[in-house]
Design brief:
By secondary structure, the chain is α+β, with helices and mostly antiparallel strands. Helix content is about 25%, strand content about 35%. It contains 14 helices and 33 strands. An 8-stranded antiparallel beta sheet has the order 11-10-16-7-8-15-12-13, covered by helices on one side. A 6-stranded mixed beta sheet has the order 2-3-1-4-5-6, with helices on both faces. Strands 21, 22, 23, 24, 25 and 26 form a 6-stranded antiparallel beta sheet that branches. Strand 32 and strand 33 form a beta hairpin. Helix 3 packs parallel to helix 4 and helix 12 runs antiparallel to helix 14. The radius of gyration is 27 Å and the shape is globular. Bound molecules: guanosine-5'-diphosphate (GDP) and magnesium ion. Magnesium ion binds next to helix 1. The site of magnesium ion has 4 residues, from helix 1. One of its GO terms (molecular function) is translation elongation factor activity. This is Elongation factor 4. It catalyses: GTP + H2O = GDP + phosphate + H(+).
Length: about 600
């Protein structure tokens, strides 16, 4: 294809501002997909994405567009994920295209993820085309939002395109703007092959599918290529493009985006950001490398029914094949038996994986408290990376601990600002900045990641009635007074409930935990002490009184079926319990106990 007739772009937006709907409309308007095959949100393929309306994996589509100038252009759209956990995927797919549509909901305005994503687009040197969406709604206010884009982002938005991705209004203007305002890619067809590995995923029929952007040279079917990061060689079986279904082509040239397959078995064998070249006389210089995505949040996953451990292993193996950013290792817990310690990019990533195991593999799970990686500096000078509070070494041998801190940006309407500041303060936050954009405040906070991983986002939503938006990036590790808090039920430590806390908050946290557990653990025939402790020292205590009433006593032995029903019901209830010493703890207790109110 003639380079001057190619436009490569992505769409950046805050979640729910209409990115997927706009992509669907662009595909439909250009007749890429027949109307009868058009289903909503064509590019969001996973069930969980559809249900939650989020895009997790980057997706791609090639569109042919006959422009008003009479020429036909090839438009390659890469749909990037819209959530903080996947910021890394956004940054890598950005490098494969020259421009972005900046979509802002004209009834809402700029939000935290708009900013986070637009900064990444600017970092990748993108040309930006502002698009104001949802103009069909009465609350739409294009002038106000255009002004806000200029104030907050600092780009000219006077010519912003006004669109309704719902009705199709403005879609033609958008396509014209893509052709007119975005730069064509550059590249040398006579140079050796240089292709960027943008993304990869596993397909049951074709093996690993590798999404590539060709920089120089040509990629052909049958060619032997080298992945430069590890020197592995592969024979290219197929070359193709997404329309959005796969269509095979003979070759891809400079500026083009498409895929290859090469009988690669595991996603782990493909490194995002890698450079692909010819096996002989290849390019000398690899593209600037991308950093691999690092898990930052860890938790234990255990089957409720311990007989399902092997099934869980299978499920995790399969999911990991397709998700290089998800890490795991076996873990045994005195309380929960065999399970896995897993690492995730963030809380949403954790939720997505957990959901898929429960849904697609039908395994009920107990999830332990999410934890971050602490750096434990020992008195002998050694530094240990602590992924699991249960592995915390004896404090007498520890010199100090460091924890990861983040920089969080929160946008919130004025009236909720006080509650947001209080929440950040309660979570050991340090205010870095507070500015206004119209009637919205933008606060920037330095926060410990461990205070954010559990339920910060839920709390933020509830105190602002859903009007705040939130985004964060990792900053650095810093020393603080951190301790391990253990929980004992009936004098038995429940390792799955132990957690790292700040010393100043330990009593408060311990008390809250004991009180909560008291409501979550059913009463038994005997008295049960529930305690929180640091080292050997008890810092909080509750007692669950003994149960007296016999549940079947009221049946007088007269109605046998009713009695059996009651017992069956009890048994069913039991299945979801775990036994600790003599005490049964229901699985919900593990999750609920760790939420703070
Ligand atoms: P994304 O999260 O940015 O991909 O947003 P979606 O495309 O999933 O859109 C979020 C919601 O807004 C969905 O319910 C869409 O139907 C709706 N939506 C998107 N564009 C428009 C529009 O132009 N007008 C109206 N009224 N609703 C829209
Ligand atoms: Mg979407």
């Amino acid at each position: 294809t003639d380079l001057s007739k190619i436009r490569n772009f992505s769409i950046v937006a805050h979640i729910d501002h209409g990115k997927s709907t706009l992509a669907d409309r662009l595909i439909q308007e250009t007749g890429t997909v027949e109307d009868r095959d058009m289903k909503e949100q064509l590019l969001d393929s996973m069930d969980i994405e559809r249900e939650r309306g989020i895009t997790i994996k980057a997706n791609t589509v090639r569109i042919d567009y006959k422009a008003d100038d009479g020429e036909t252009y090839v438009l390659n759209l890469i749909d990037t994920p819209g959530h903080v956990d996947f910021a890394y995927e956004v940054s890598r797919s950005m490098k494969a295209v020259e421009g972005s549509l900046l979509v802002v909901d004209s009834t809402q305005g700029v939000e935290a993820q708009t900013l986070a994503n637009v900064y990444q687009a600017i970092e990748a040197d993108h040309e930006l085309v502002p698009v104001l969406n949802k103009i069909d709604l009465p609350a739409s206010d294009c002038d106000r939002v255009a002004e806000q884009i200029e104030d907050v982002i600092g780009i000219d938005a006077t010519g912003a395109i006004q669109v309704s991705a719902k009705t199709g209004q403005g879609i033609h203007d958008t396509l014209e703007a893509i052709v007119r305002e975005l730069p064509a890619p550059t590249g040398n067809i006579d140079a050796p092959l240089k292709a960027m590995l943008v993304d990869s995923w596993y397909d049951a029929y074709l093996g690993v599918i590798v999404l590539v952007r060709i920089m120089d040279g040509t990629l052909k079917k049958g060619q032997r290529v080298k992945f430069m990061s590890n020197g592995t060689l592969h024979n290219v079986d197929r070359v193709g493009v997404f329309r959005p279904e796969m269509q095979m082509v003979d070759s891809l040239g400079p500026g083009e985006i498409g895929f290859l397959t090469a009988s690669i078995k595991q996603v782990r064998d493909t490194r995002v950001g890698d450079t692909i070249t010819n096996d002989r006389h290849g390019t000398e210089e690899a593209l600037p490398g991308f950093k691999p995505a690092q898990p930052v949040v860890f938790c234990g996953l255990f089957p409720v029914d311990s007989a399902e451990f092997e099934d869980l292993r299978d499920a995790i193996d399969k999911l990991a094949l397709n998700d290089a950013s998800f890490s795991f290792e076996m873990e045994t817990s005195a309380a929960l038996g065999f399970g896995f310690r897993c690492g995730f990019l963030g809380l949403l990533h954790l939720e997505v994986i957990r959901d898929r195991i429960e849904r697609e593999y039908n395994i009920e799970l107990i999830t332990t408290a999410p934890s971050v990686i602490y750096h434990v500096f020992m008195k002998d000078g050694e530094m240990i990376e602590l992924h699991n509070p249960a592995d915390m070494p004896d404090m007498s041998k520890v010199d100090h601990l460091e924890e990861p801190r983040i920089k969080a940006t929160i946008l919130v309407p004025d009236e909720y600002l006080g509650d947001v500041l209080k929440l950040c303060q309660d979570r050991r936050g340090i205010q870095l900045d507070l500015t206004y954009a119209g009637s919205r405040a933008m606060c920037v906070y330095d926060l410990p990641l461990n205070e954010v991983v559990f339920d910060f986002y839920d709390r933020l939503k509830s105190v602002t009635k859903g009007y705040a938006s939130f985004d964060y990036q990792m900053e650095d590790y810093r020393e603080d007074n951190l301790v391990k808090m253990s929980v004992l039920v009936n004098d038995e430590p429940v390792d799955a409930l132990s957690m790292m806390v700040h010393r100043d908050r330990a009593e408060q946290r311990g008390r809250a935990m004991c009180e909560k557990l008291k409501t979550l653990i059913p009463r038994h025939m005997f008295k049960i002490p529930i305690q929180a402790a640091i080292g050997g020292k008890v810092i909080a205590r509750e007692t669950l009184s003994a149960l007296r009433k016999d549940v079947t006593a009221k049946c007088y032995g007269g109605d046998a079926t009713r009695k059996r029903k009651l017992l069956d019901k009890q048994k069913a209830g039991k299945k979801k319990m775990r036994q600790f010493g003599k005490v049964d703890i229901p699985q919900e207790a593990f999750i609920s106990a760790l939420k703070m109110d």
